[in-house]
Specification:
The chain is 16% helix and 36% strand. The chain is globular and about 45 Å long. The protein starts with a strand and ends in a 12-residue tail after the last strand. It has one domain. The protein is of the alpha+beta class.
């Protein structure tokens, strides 16, 4: 699944693929925004860990769970 995370006062966003489900990502974001966790901690498909302070989150865009197709049409 593709994720995009906007960070306040930063011109760039984090963009990566994760093996987490949409529900798992939503749960982690909700926990961070409700104050249950001071950070949003997510892992990408390669095992890299991203930690973003909850107070700095601008938005989290959760993409589809479909895998990308690689190749040429036709």
């Amino acid at each position: 699944m593709d994720l995009r995370i906007g960070i306040q006062n930063s011109p760039r966003e984090l963009s990566f693929e994760t093996s987490l489900t949409a529900a798992e990502v939503e749960q982690a974001v909700s926990a961070a925004l409700s104050g249950q966790s001071p950070v949003l901690r997510l892992t990408d498909a390669k095992g890299t860990v991203y930690v973003v302070p909850a107070a700095a989150l601008a938005y989290v865009e959760i993409g589809t769970e479909e895998s990308r197709k690689i190749g040429f049409v036709g």
